[in-house]
Automatic annotation (TrEMBL):
InterPro entries: Cyclic-di-GMP_PDE-like (IPR050706), EAL_dom (IPR001633), EAL_sf (IPR035919)
PROSITE patterns: EAL (PS50883)
Domain EAL: 1-189
Alphabetical list of Pfam families matching this protein: EAL (PF00563)
UniProt protein name: EAL domain-containing protein
Gene3D superfamilies: EAL domain
Organism: Photobacterium angustum
Superkingdom of this protein's organism: Bacteria
Length: 189
Protein backbone atom coordinates (compact mmCIF):
# COMPACT_ATOMS: atom_id res chain seq x y z
CA UNK A 1 0.00 0.00 0.00
CA UNK A 2 3.15 2.16 -0.05
CA UNK A 3 2.60 3.68 3.39
CA UNK A 4 5.71 2.24 5.06
CA UNK A 5 7.69 5.48 4.73
CA UNK A 6 4.99 7.54 6.41
CA UNK A 7 4.53 4.91 9.12
CA UNK A 8 8.27 4.92 9.82
CA UNK A 9 8.48 8.72 9.97
CA UNK A 10 5.43 8.85 12.26
CA UNK A 11 7.04 6.24 14.51
CA UNK A 12 10.28 8.24 14.66
CA UNK A 13 8.30 11.35 15.70
CA UNK A 14 6.47 9.34 18.39
CA UNK A 15 9.75 7.96 19.74
CA UNK A 16 11.26 11.46 19.76
CA UNK A 17 8.25 12.75 21.74
CA UNK A 18 8.48 9.87 24.22
CA UNK A 19 12.21 10.28 24.71
CA UNK A 20 11.93 14.05 25.13
CA UNK A 21 10.12 13.26 28.39
CA UNK A 22 12.73 10.65 29.29
CA UNK A 23 15.65 13.06 28.99
CA UNK A 24 14.37 15.15 31.88
CA UNK A 25 14.33 12.16 34.25
CA UNK A 26 17.46 10.18 33.37
CA UNK A 27 21.00 10.86 32.26
CA UNK A 28 21.78 7.47 30.72
CA UNK A 29 21.64 7.39 26.90
CA UNK A 30 19.85 4.45 25.34
CA UNK A 31 19.71 3.04 21.83
CA UNK A 32 16.51 2.96 19.84
CA UNK A 33 16.51 0.81 16.71
CA UNK A 34 14.25 1.33 13.72
CA UNK A 35 13.67 -1.33 11.07
CA UNK A 36 14.11 -0.31 7.45
CA UNK A 37 13.02 -2.28 4.41
CA UNK A 38 15.08 -2.67 1.24
CA UNK A 39 12.70 -0.27 -0.52
CA UNK A 40 13.32 2.40 2.13
CA UNK A 41 17.08 1.94 2.08
CA UNK A 42 17.11 2.39 -1.70
CA UNK A 43 15.07 5.60 -1.42
CA UNK A 44 17.54 8.53 -1.10
CA UNK A 45 14.88 11.22 -0.44
CA UNK A 46 13.47 9.08 2.37
CA UNK A 47 16.92 8.44 3.89
CA UNK A 48 17.71 12.17 3.64
CA UNK A 49 14.41 12.98 5.38
CA UNK A 50 15.18 10.44 8.12
CA UNK A 51 18.67 11.89 8.65
CA UNK A 52 17.20 15.41 8.78
CA UNK A 53 14.59 14.36 11.38
CA UNK A 54 17.23 12.80 13.61
CA UNK A 55 20.17 15.19 13.10
CA UNK A 56 19.58 17.15 16.29
CA UNK A 57 18.30 14.23 18.38
CA UNK A 58 20.05 14.12 21.75
CA UNK A 59 17.65 12.09 23.89
CA UNK A 60 18.46 8.65 22.41
CA UNK A 61 20.93 7.08 20.02
CA UNK A 62 19.18 5.93 16.85
CA UNK A 63 20.30 2.86 14.95
CA UNK A 64 18.80 1.04 11.99
CA UNK A 65 18.12 -2.58 11.24
CA UNK A 66 17.88 -3.96 7.72
CA UNK A 67 15.03 -6.41 7.37
CA UNK A 68 15.49 -9.28 4.93
CA UNK A 69 11.92 -9.56 3.74
CA UNK A 70 12.50 -7.84 0.37
CA UNK A 71 15.10 -8.08 -2.37
CA UNK A 72 17.27 -5.07 -3.08
CA UNK A 73 16.69 -3.83 -6.62
CA UNK A 74 19.38 -1.13 -6.57
CA UNK A 75 22.32 -2.39 -4.53
CA UNK A 76 24.53 0.61 -5.41
CA UNK A 77 21.93 3.06 -4.07
CA UNK A 78 21.40 0.93 -0.96
CA UNK A 79 25.15 0.91 -0.26
CA UNK A 80 25.37 4.68 -0.76
CA UNK A 81 22.42 5.33 1.57
CA UNK A 82 23.77 2.98 4.23
CA UNK A 83 27.09 4.80 3.98
CA UNK A 84 25.23 8.13 4.44
CA UNK A 85 23.55 6.84 7.59
CA UNK A 86 26.85 5.53 8.96
CA UNK A 87 28.61 8.82 8.18
CA UNK A 88 26.02 10.49 10.42
CA UNK A 89 27.03 8.08 13.20
CA UNK A 90 24.14 5.63 12.97
CA UNK A 91 24.80 1.92 13.36
CA UNK A 92 23.41 -0.49 10.78
CA UNK A 93 22.50 -4.02 11.83
CA UNK A 94 21.10 -6.98 9.96
CA UNK A 95 17.81 -8.01 11.58
CA UNK A 96 16.68 -11.65 11.72
CA UNK A 97 19.97 -12.84 10.25
CA UNK A 98 19.71 -15.96 8.15
CA UNK A 99 15.94 -15.93 7.66
CA UNK A 100 15.33 -13.85 4.55
CA UNK A 101 16.58 -12.99 1.10
CA UNK A 102 19.94 -11.43 1.92
CA UNK A 103 21.55 -13.95 4.19
CA UNK A 104 25.32 -13.95 4.23
CA UNK A 105 25.52 -11.80 1.08
CA UNK A 106 24.56 -8.78 3.24
CA UNK A 107 27.81 -9.23 5.14
CA UNK A 108 29.67 -8.91 1.85
CA UNK A 109 27.53 -6.13 0.34
CA UNK A 110 27.17 -3.84 3.35
CA UNK A 111 29.56 -2.61 5.98
CA UNK A 112 27.37 -3.83 8.86
CA UNK A 113 27.90 -2.75 12.44
CA UNK A 114 25.98 -5.65 13.91
CA UNK A 115 23.72 -8.61 13.46
CA UNK A 116 20.56 -9.72 15.26
CA UNK A 117 20.18 -13.47 15.53
CA UNK A 118 16.58 -14.50 14.91
CA UNK A 119 14.58 -16.33 17.58
CA UNK A 120 14.26 -19.46 15.41
CA UNK A 121 18.01 -20.04 15.90
CA UNK A 122 17.82 -19.26 19.62
CA UNK A 123 14.97 -21.76 20.09
CA UNK A 124 17.23 -24.67 19.06
CA UNK A 125 19.81 -24.10 21.78
CA UNK A 126 20.04 -27.37 23.72
CA UNK A 127 18.24 -29.32 20.98
CA UNK A 128 19.73 -31.53 18.28
CA UNK A 129 18.96 -29.49 15.19
CA UNK A 130 20.91 -28.41 12.12
CA UNK A 131 20.01 -24.79 12.95
CA UNK A 132 22.49 -24.99 15.85
CA UNK A 133 25.27 -25.17 13.26
CA UNK A 134 23.83 -22.15 11.46
CA UNK A 135 23.70 -20.30 14.80
CA UNK A 136 27.34 -21.18 15.48
CA UNK A 137 28.29 -20.04 11.97
CA UNK A 138 26.54 -16.67 12.40
CA UNK A 139 28.27 -16.14 15.74
CA UNK A 140 31.68 -17.15 14.37
CA UNK A 141 31.37 -14.96 11.28
CA UNK A 142 30.18 -11.92 13.24
CA UNK A 143 33.06 -12.31 15.70
CA UNK A 144 35.58 -12.58 12.87
CA UNK A 145 34.12 -9.44 11.30
CA UNK A 146 34.28 -7.66 14.65
CA UNK A 147 30.61 -6.65 14.67
CA UNK A 148 28.09 -6.59 17.51
CA UNK A 149 25.86 -9.60 18.03
CA UNK A 150 22.33 -9.31 19.42
CA UNK A 151 20.38 -12.46 20.29
CA UNK A 152 16.62 -11.93 20.19
CA UNK A 153 13.78 -14.04 21.50
CA UNK A 154 15.70 -15.38 24.50
CA UNK A 155 13.35 -17.09 26.94
CA UNK A 156 15.28 -19.59 29.08
CA UNK A 157 18.25 -19.75 31.42
CA UNK A 158 19.80 -22.42 29.17
CA UNK A 159 19.71 -19.99 26.24
CA UNK A 160 21.21 -17.18 28.35
CA UNK A 161 24.00 -19.49 29.56
CA UNK A 162 24.81 -20.62 26.00
CA UNK A 163 24.84 -17.05 24.68
CA UNK A 164 26.96 -15.76 27.56
CA UNK A 165 29.43 -18.62 27.07
CA UNK A 166 29.70 -17.53 23.41
CA UNK A 167 30.25 -13.91 24.52
CA UNK A 168 27.20 -12.49 22.72
CA UNK A 169 27.15 -8.69 23.09
CA UNK A 170 23.44 -8.16 23.75
CA UNK A 171 20.64 -10.51 24.79
CA UNK A 172 16.99 -9.55 24.53
CA UNK A 173 13.76 -11.42 25.05
CA UNK A 174 11.06 -12.50 27.46
CA UNK A 175 13.70 -13.94 29.80
CA UNK A 176 14.34 -10.33 30.83
CA UNK A 177 11.03 -8.64 30.04
CA UNK A 178 7.99 -8.80 27.85
CA UNK A 179 7.35 -5.69 25.73
CA UNK A 180 5.98 -2.84 27.84
CA UNK A 181 4.64 0.63 27.05
CA UNK A 182 7.23 3.41 27.05
CA UNK A 183 5.94 4.88 30.32
CA UNK A 184 6.45 1.53 32.08
CA UNK A 185 10.11 1.17 31.06
CA UNK A 186 12.62 1.21 33.91
CA UNK A 187 15.78 2.91 32.66
CA UNK A 188 17.53 2.52 35.99
CA UNK A 189 17.96 -1.23 35.52
Amino acid sequence: MEVINQITLTLVKKVQKDFSQYSYQYEKKVFCAFNLTAQQIENKPFIDQLIDMLKSETNFIASFEITERQHFKNLAMAKANIRSLQEQGYQIKLDDAGTGYGGFSYFMDFNLDGVKIDKMFIDVIGVEDVKVEVLNSIIMMAKRLGIDIVAEGVETQQQVDFLRSHKIDYIQGYYYSKPVPFNDLDFND
